[in-house]
SMODS and SLOG-associating 2TM effector domain-containing protein
Amino acid sequence: METDKNKEKENNLDTKKETKSVTKENAEMGSTAQTKNEKFVEWSPENEMIMVEWCDVAQCYKWLNTRAHNKYKMMNAWFTIPAITLSTISGTASFAQASLPVSMQSYAPMAIGTLNILIGILTTVQQYLKISELNEAHRVSAISWDKFARNIRIELSKAPSERMDAGPFIKICRQEFDRLMETSPSVNEKVVQEFFQAFSGKEGSIERKRFEALKKPDICNIIISANEYRHPWYLDESTNTGTDNVVFVEPENEEYIRKKELELLEKENTLRNKENAEKDKQNRRENAQKMFQKGFLELSKKLKLQSKKLEDYVQAFQGMYGRKPIVDEIERHAEPLIESGEIERETLVKFLANYKSEGVLDLV
């Protein structure tokens, strides 16, 4: 019986070991599958620029929240200390009321009531302005922003081979950055002005250069176009649609990037100006053709009217005298019309060149 029990125990142990080994293998397979599905992201200058920007913004928020915490701490002290003092005086006066002179005992309740009213006003105003809550919120926010900036600064100070993978680290930092932006209290505008006065420095100084290079948050009245954060892959003319042939530009070449952008804008402007000039030239040509056609039609119409007057004279003369007029007669008839401007001399010359008298001797 004992041998059978020992055999059963051994079988149970073997089955447990097999199940444990199977679960370990499944876990290892699952972890390898997850690592295969996750894309490995190396550290690049663009990823480091994102981290640098977040670290700068975190340092700015740390200073702003610390300054706001100091202000609210002072305000909290100005509200709390008088309330404690007045409440202590009021309590002491209520106990010592019987020891006062008889002439002063009637005024003691009024004085104690006044002190209690002042204490109530101070505490109510303090609660309405949420001074203690904002004081604690700014303190916690300053500590959180400092911790966030310190983690990024330590990670960037390492060599790329010693750092954590860029993909998970950026994901963690982005989640923490979003959380801090949501939970941090708003900063007063006076604190922002003090921030500029404390770090801007004089023109041309090292402090001014560092302040200009610092990436500041949006509450500092600074908004930067998203085009400055765009990856400069499009500036390389040899790039293809595939990501393997993309050549990334180092962040030190910002001036080169801006020059390329200006060159592209200048090329677009020159092409646009050429197109506009060609359109203007085409419009002028079309307008000139229209004006020429219009003038030609008006001139031909005018010549027809003038020739019609001469033809009417010839027909009238022929109907009256039974013959066509000679050239001299036509010229004598046309002279007053030429002087009055009804007929031009060129019209008369052309009419006489085409005129043929029938049965009449041309004396000219």
About this structure: Residues 218 and 225 are 12 Å apart (CA to CA).
